[in-house]
């Protein structure tokens, strides 16, 4: 399973979300891929006011900030 973290530079909330996700201990391992929304006008339009946002591939379920570790784990469990 892959988690995408939509983020951008100088985003302290994004840094908090990244630290939280790196420290998760889910039942199944996952890959974490960072996506900088500044690289795409479409991503800025879609996520600019909502980052950090976690998205699970391939199903596309999303979790927008604010979220905690329990909510992130629940997202992973729902999308096995």
Structural account:
- The protein is of the alpha+beta class and 80 residues long.
- It has a single domain (2-78), classed as Glutaredoxin (3-Layer(aba) Sandwich), CATH 3.40.30.10.
- It has three helices and four strands.
- It has helices at 12-22, 41-47, 69-78; strands at 2-7, 31-36, 53-57, 62-64.
- Strands 2-1-3-4 form a four-stranded mixed β-sheet, with helices on one face.
- The longest helix has 11 residues, at 12-22.
- The mean pLDDT is 93.
Summarize the structure.
This protein is an alpha+beta fold. Helices cover 35% and strands 25% of the residues. It has one domain: Glutaredoxin, CATH 3.40.30.
Features:
80 residues; alpha+beta; Glutaredoxin; 4-stranded mixed sheet
